[in-house]
Amino acid sequence: MKKIYLLLIIFCVASMLVHGQGDVLSEDERSRLCQEAEQFFTEGLELSRDGKKTEAAEALDKAAARYERAASDASFANGKLFYNLGNVYFMKDDLGRAILNYRKAERYLPFDKKLQDNMAFARSRRVDVIEEHEQKRVMKTLFFLHYDLPLVWREGILLIGFALFWAALAALRWHKAGWLRWVAGLSCIVAVVFGVSVWLSYRESRQPSAVIVAKEAIARKGGSAAYDKSFEKPLHAGTEVTLTDDNGGWVEFRLGNGETGWLPKDDVGIVQ
User: Fold this and answer.
1) Are residues 70 and 156 in the same domain?
2) Same domain, 92 and 117
3) 152 vs 114, 223, 262, CA distance in Å?
4) Burial (CB count within 10 angstroms: exposed 0-12, middle 13-18, buried 19+), residue 261
5) Does residue 146 belong to any structural domain of this protein?
6) Which residue, 186, 204, 222, sits at the end of a domain?
7) Is the confidence at residue 165, as pLDDT, over 80?
8) 91, 124, 157: which is the final residue of a domain?
9) Separation CA 33–CA 88 (nearest Å)
10) Claim to verify: residue 28 and residue 116 sit in the same structural domain
11) Which domain holds residue 231?
């Protein structure tokens, strides 16, 4: 049990280090960037309604640049920030980056209805229609807690279950109450279940989710432009993939239906 406890401590420290990466902005810089981004976004909407497309595009570009700068600070990144950035890109008709940022926002706001509605509408605008394997759909239904709850929530539940388990065991040394045995048993089950879920998530992070951000992306059978095309037609912005390999300039991907190929790294944006 000591080894398990030590591994848990190492895991928590590693998690904090991973989540803490990125540029660091001051509180004033964050506030200024977000305020300016909101102002430019509002200006872009008004100009667009007035039919001034060129000026609207310039204002939206400025809004996107400021939100991107704020999002570069990993300690400040949050659901609202990515949601707003997704809205900006959607107004810019950049479907790939809109879905990418909605997916990032979903990690923080998994049950936000506005976010889900906006993401569903953006997905309905995609050119490519990729059907998921039936097996994958069944897995998402059976193990909905693993797929629906954000990683940080599952980490928290794991730690709570682990702490309750040891607290109940310590209490049982002094008081042999039946309810303490139930607490120990149930908390142990919770810790094991969510421990496996968190472990799977870190294992899956080696094959991160991504979204195609290029308007058209020609998939190849290998990691360079010298290889033949993987598909007869190109893939398009907004198509969601899983990355399985990386040779530096190109990434190997897998579609929801199991088909694979390679794309230039700049053609995709990584969700997590």
Assistant:
1) no
2) yes
3) 21, 34, 31
4) buried
5) yes
6) 204
7) yes
8) 124
9) 14
10) yes
11) 209-270
pLDDT of 80: 96
CATH code where residue 55 lies: 1.25.40.10
pLDDT of residue 1: 45
CATH number reported for the structural domain that contains residue 240 in this entry: 2.30.30.40
List the structure tokens of 204: 């899956």
pLDDT digits (tens, 9 = 90+) for 66-117: 999 999 888 888 999 999 999 999 999 999 999 999 999 998 898 899 999 9
Instruction: Give residue-wise pLDDT tens across range 12-47.
Output: 444 444 444 456 888 889 999 999 999 999 999 999
More confident call, 265 vs 202: 265
pLDDT digits (tens, 9 = 90+) for 173-231: 888 788 888 988 999 999 998 888 888 877 776 778 999 999 999 999 999 999 999 99
What pLDDT does 73 receive? 87
Residue 53 lies in a domain: yes
- DSSP string of the chain, one letter each residue: -HHHHHHHHHHHHHHHHHHT-S----HHHHHHHHHHHHHHHHHHHHHHHTT-HHHHHHHHHHHHHHHHHHHTSTTT--HHHHHHHHHHHHHTT-HHHHHHHHHHHHHH-TT-HHHHHHHHHHHHT-S---PPPHHHHHHHHHTHHHHHS-HHHHHHHHHHHHHHHHHHHHHHTT---HHHHHHHHHHHHHHHHHHHHHHHHHHHTTS-EEEE-SSEE--BSSSSTTSPBSSSS-EETT-EEEEEEE-SSEEEEE-TTS-EEEEEGGGEEE--
